[in-house]
Amino acid sequence: MAQSVADKFLEDSKSKSFDLRHRQIINTNIDKYNLAFERGISKFQDLENSKKKANLIKWKTIENLDRYLLDFEANFTRNGGQVIWANDAEEARQEIAKIMEMHQAKSVVKSKSMATEEIELNHFLEKKNIETIESDLGEFIIQLLDQKPYHFVTPAMHLSLEDIAKLFHERFETPLEATAEELTMKAREILREKYAAADIGITGANFLVADSGSIAITENEGNARLTTAFPKVHIAVVGIEKVIPSMNDLDLFWPLLASHGTGQNLTVYNSLISGPRKAAEADGPEEMYVILLDNGRSNVLEQKDQRQGLYCIRCGACLNVCPIYQNIGGHTYETTYQGPIGSLISPHLNGMKEFKHLSYASSLCGKCTEVCPVGIDIQKMLLLNRRDAVQENLSPKMEKKAWGMFTWAIQKRRIIDFFGGKTKNFFIRNFFKKAWGEQRELPKLADKSFSQQYKERKKNS
Ligand code: SF4
Question: What is the pLDDT of residue 266?
C-alpha cells in the first residue's frame, strides 16, 4: 500500500529531528536571522500599531477581494498590460505555454516566485524543451540540486557554505575553498548572459497594487530587475491574495516585509512595474502579462474563520521562530509553503483529507502569532483546522475509538481509581509507546490519582 502523505511526514520528521548536522546549519542560519530581525524591528517607533494597521488593511482587502482584483485588472489593462485569470495550476501552465508558443520562446529567465513553485513551472517548461534558469542565487542553487525551496524566503537555508562550494566545484570547477563572494561572482557570470539571451522573463510579485495597476517586487540581488528589463516579454504569476488597495499602503508593507523577512529597513531593490515599456522608456518588456492565480485560495476565502491565512505577506518570520520548523526542516512539509503558515493554508490549498496532519504539527506555543507582521492569529487558526478535520469526520478510526474510550473512562471516577499507578503505567507503556515516539520518555503516572491524593490530604489536614 502506498505510503500516505501524513505517514511520510512522520517518518521524515523523525529522521530530520535527529540529524545533528541539519540542526547545526539551521541553528546557525536562524541565529543570524534573529540578530538581523531584532535590529530590523527596532527601527519601528510603534511596531504593534503598524501590525494592527497592516491587519486592518488586509482584512479590508480580503473581505472585498473581488472588487480590488477588478480594480487592479482595469488599471493594469489601461497601462497596456494583460491580465489572465487562472483557476488552478494547470490553467496557469497552459496560459504560459500559449504565450511561449506565440513568441516561439526557447528560453526563460526567472526570478524567485513561490507561485511558480506552486504550479511546478520549471518541470513543465523543461518537458517542453524550454531552457529555464533561476536567477535568484538561492533558487539557482536549489535548481542545480533539483530540490524544492527549503524556506520560502531563503530557499537554500539548509545548506552550508561548504555544501555550496562543493556543488559549484563539481558543476563549474570553482575552487573547493571558494568564498561566498567568489561563488556569487561565478553565479553572476553565468546568469549575465542568460538575461540578455532569454526570450521571456518570469517573476512573481510581492504585492499587486490595485489603484495604480502595478506589481511590486521586493528583492536584494537586482536579478528581478534584470529579469523584467531585458526579455521582450514579462509574465508575472501572482496569487490573488497579494492585492493591496493603494500605492500608499507600500509605505507600511515594504518596511514590515523587509524587517520581518531579512531584518532590513528596506530591501535593496523595490520595483514597481505598471505594464510594458512606454514609447519614451529605455528598457522594459514590449508585452507584459499578469497571471492571477487562484489555485485553492478561494477555498481559504470560503473559510470564514480561517481566511486570515490570506493576509500573509510571506515574510517567513513565523517559520524562523517555529520550534517544529527548526527541528523537522522545510522539505519535510512537502508543500510549497512551509512552517506555521504552511500548516494553516496547505490543508485548504491542497486538501484537508491529505494535509490535515500539518495543523497538528504545532506545539501551539504562539510564537508565530507573536511575530506575524500582519497579525494573523496562526495558532488559533490551526486549532480551527483541527476542529474542521474532526467535524468532517477525517480522523483515523483508531483515534476516534481511543478518544471515545478515554471520554467514557474519564467520566467514571471509580474505574479510574480502581487501577493503581503500576497497572496504568503498564497499559500506557504497552499500548501508547509507539504513538508517543521512540525518542521520548513516557511520563510516569503517580500510584494514586489526583482525586485520591486530594481526598487523603483533605482528610489529614
Ligand atoms: S503568516 Fe505572518 S509571519 Fe508567517 S510568513 Fe505570513 S506574514 Fe510572515
Answer: 96
The Å distance, Cα 341 to ligand 1 centre, comes to 6
Which residues in 27-104 belong to E strands, given as ranges?
82-86
Question: What is the pLDDT, as a whole number, of residue 383?
Answer: 97
- Judged by phi (left if over 0) then psi (alpha if -120 to 50, else beta), residue 316 lies in left
For residue 130, the model assigns a pLDDT of 97
Following DSSP, what letter does each residue of 215-279 receive, concatenated?
EEEEESSSHHHHHHHSSSEEEEEEEGGGEES-GGGHHHHHHHHHHHHTS-SS-SEEEEE-SSPPT
pTM of the model: 0.92
| Number of the ligand 1 atom closest to the C-alpha atom of 371 | 3
Question: 275 and 76 in contact (C-beta within 8 Å)?
Answer: yes
Query: How far is the C-alpha of 304 from the C-alpha of 23, rounded, in Å?
Result: 37
Distance CA 325, CA 151 (A): 10
Which residue, chain included where needed, has cell 526567472?
Answer: 110
Which domains, and CATH codes, for the chain?
1-42+314-395 (no CATH), 66-295 (3.40.50.10420), 400-460 (no CATH)
373 close to ligand 1 (CB < 6 Angstrom): yes
Which grid cell sits at 342?
504552511
Could you give the CA distance from residue 58 to residue 312 in angstroms, rounded to a whole number? 9
Query: Residues of the chain whose pLDDT is less than 70?
Result: 1
Is residue 16 within 8 A of residue 22, CB to CB? The reply is: yes
Give the distance between the most distant pair of CA atoms in the chain. 93
- Structure confidence by residue, pLDDT tens digits, 163-211: 999 999 999 999 999 999 999 999 999 999 899 899 999 999 999 999 9
- The strand ranges marked E within 278-342 are 287-293
The x, y and z cell numbers of residue 415, run together, are 474505574
Name the residue type at position 221.
E
Nearest CA to ligand 1 atom 3: 372
Contacts of residue 90, Cβ cutoff 8 Å, sequence gap at least 6: none
Closest CA to ligand 1's atom 8: 315
Using alpha carbons, list the distances in angstroms from residue 143 to 98, 112, 234, 431: 24, 11, 21, 45
Q: How far is the CA of 326 from the centre of ligand 1 (A)?
A: 16
pLDDT for the residue numbered 254: 98
Q: Looking at the DSSP assignment, which residues form a beta bridge with residue 290?
A: 83, 236
Residues 6+ apart with CB under 8 A from 226: 109, 135, 195
pLDDT of 1 reads 61
- Report residue 20: phi and psi, to 5°: -70, -30
CA atoms within 13 A on the CB side of 84: 19
Please tell me the residue having the least CA distance from ligand 1 atom 6: 312
